[in-house]
Amino acid sequence: MNLAGTGQPAEPGRGDGRGEQSSSEPTKRPYTVTRPREKWDAVEHAKFVEALKLYGRQWRKIEEHVGSKTAVQIRSHAQKFFAKLSKGTASESEKIEVPPPRPKKKPQRFQPSVSGELLLLTSCSVTVGPPPTMNIP
Fold first, then answer.
1. Is residue 74 within 8 Å of residue 48, measured between CB atoms?
2. Could you give the CA distance from residue 41 to residue 122 in angstroms, rounded to a whole number?
3. Which label site among 6, 22, 48, 112 has the fewest CB atoms less than 10 Å from its CB?
């Protein structure tokens, strides 16, 4: 048996907490890098900070402003940038006021009917017994 993704045989009594792997468990594929990591250059970051001041957390508008990064990449960069600001390690030119996060959606509760009474769902009745017989000629 191999350790998942390492190509090395498992040692008995290794203590990795997994025990013996049964044949029904899928093995994990090793992590492969499909695309190289794209770093943010100074021009892209400057456009990002400028757009953040203009648009707040409107990621699609920031994406259009930066032009070379996707909204997902921009959100990820923003998360790291906000952490850098909160630690106080950002440069003076980068220091901005962090836009507030969008409000969380509240879970929906039972909606009262027009008369003010709660609408309740009723369950169906189920009969238990032998299956019906079919007359097949």
1. yes
2. 60
3. 22
pTM of the model: 0.50
Asked if residues 77 and 37 have their Cβ atoms less than 8 Å apart, the reply is no
Q: Tens digits of per-residue pLDDT, 29-67?
A: 888 877 777 889 999 999 999 999 999 999 999 999 999
The secondary structure of residue 127, as a DSSP letter, is -
CA distance 104 to 120: 27
Contacts of 7 (CB under 8 A, 6+ apart): none
| Residue 105: other Cβ atoms inside 10 A | 6
